[in-house]
Design a protein that fits this description.
378 residues; alpha/beta; seven-stranded parallel β-sheet; six-stranded parallel β-sheet; 14 helices; 38% helix; 17% strand
Length: 378
């Protein structure tokens, strides 16, 4: 009798490394489940387990194992425990039939951690089919499947391919971005008039970007005329770790064109209400592309710079710069972007429609399902 194939997903998320790894792995897990696979998450600590269960929310059918010997930043120390777990599974199912042409199909092991080592991956490969989600290109990963969803210019593809010679199969480019279900097949239509603007920095806002830009927008003497004369509304996403919540709320209470949002579960719906977006670089840029919302980005951390530059070079999302070093210039760039793209003129509409088309061609929201199919076929 055929048995559902099992995929172990090893990842973590906590206060030190945030929850991005958990979110993208959960998206892949849902896609794998839709193809009939069984999902078992392996995490290193209680915080990772709690966050993952919060992200999973109403979804059932997943197993969660907190490894006893693990540390999120030292994966090699968990190898004896993990290999013992996988060896037990292999021994138990070695006599199971998965079809007329194979007596046994190895389970799958998807790893998403910046602390992976060549030793770790090499130890797993005899026991499972391995896959790795990469952002950093730290070494030539010995895996069966390598996933890197960077925005990669055509002239850089060969460079990426040469980096990953030990991988059996490569999934490269933004079409493999594992976004949440809410971003699948949900492209907006470009409205004739643009007045609603999303502003988001992600979970934290260490440079007080939201507070500073809103103070500028509420000071009619500072704003350039093309912006202050527009009837605009600003939708501000206040991150969980923002230090400016109280002051932002005071401003929102005072000005009717400001609306604050916290703990947003359906970000796609909020984004879809907006005509333009101002966002810190990161996964949010992929989400905005999937919906096709004309946007401008900025950076506030070293690990955002390459991504922001890639979206800019692709002609999808211009980058205003790094808020840590050139805040005045960045705000001017953002004001200019809003002035050119808001309102109801034909020129504004044409700019937004062109940006919408470029963004939509880059990311369509179905990357998680593409990854799941590739895993299924290993």
């Amino acid at each position: 009798m055929e048995t559902s194939r099992l995929i172990y997903i090893r990842t973590d998320g906590n206060a030190k490394i945030a929850s991005g790894h958990l979110v993208r792995c959960f998206s892949v897990a849902l896609a794998c489940q839709s193809l009939g696979m069984k999902i078992c998450f392996l995490v290193s600590d209680g915080e990772s387990c709690r966050l993952l269960k919060e992200i999973s929310d109403m979804h059932t059918g997943f197993t969660f194992i907190q490894l006893k010997t693990a540390a999120f930043d030292h994966l090699d120390q968990e190898l004896p425990e993990v290999t013992a777990l996988l060896s037990t599974h292999t021994s138990r199912l070695s006599g199971t039939s998965y079809g007329p042409h194979s007596a046994f199909v190895k389970p799958l092991y998807l790893l998403d951690s910046y602390y992976v080592t060549e030793k770790y991956l090499s130890a797993l490969r005899p026991l499972v089919k391995t896959a790795y989600m990469d952002d950093l290109q730290l070494f030539d990963y010995p895996v069966d499947l390598l996933i890197n969803y960077d925005v990669i210019p055509d002239d850089k593809i060969s460079s990426y391919q040469s980096t990953y010679q030990n991988a059996g199969q490569l999934l490269l480019g933004a079409s493999y971005t594992p976004l949440r279900n809410q971003f699948q097949n949900r492209r907006i239509s470009v409205r004739k008039s643009a007045s609603d603007i999303l502003i988001t920095t992600g979970g934290s806002d260490p440079c007080h970007f939201c507070l500073n830009i809103i103070k500028l927008f509420t000071d009619t003497f500072i704003l350039p005329s093309p912006v202050k004369d527009r009837d605009l509304k600003f939708h501000i996403v206040v991150g969980r770790m923002s230090l400016d919540k109280k002051e932002l709320q005071l401003l929102a209470n005072k000005f009717s064109f400001l609306e604050l949002y916290e703990n947003v579960s359906d970000m796609a719906s909020l984004m879809s209400k907006c005509d333009l977006a101002v966002s810190a670089a990161g996964t949010t840029l992929y989400e905005l592309c999937a919906l096709g919302i004309p946007s401008i980005s900025f950076t506030m951390a070293d690990n955002q710079v390459d991504s922001a530059s890639a979206f800019d070079a692709a002609g999808a999302i211009p980058c205003a710069g790094d808020i840590r070093t050139s805040s005045h210039q960045i705000f001017q760039e953002i004001f200019h972007f809003i002035a050119e793209n808001s309102g109801s003129s034909d020129a504004s509409y044409s700019k937004r429609k062109a940006a919408h088309d470029r963004m939509s061609s880059l990311v369509d929201g179905n990357g998680a399902l593409r990854i799941a199919h590739a895993l299924q076929n290993l």
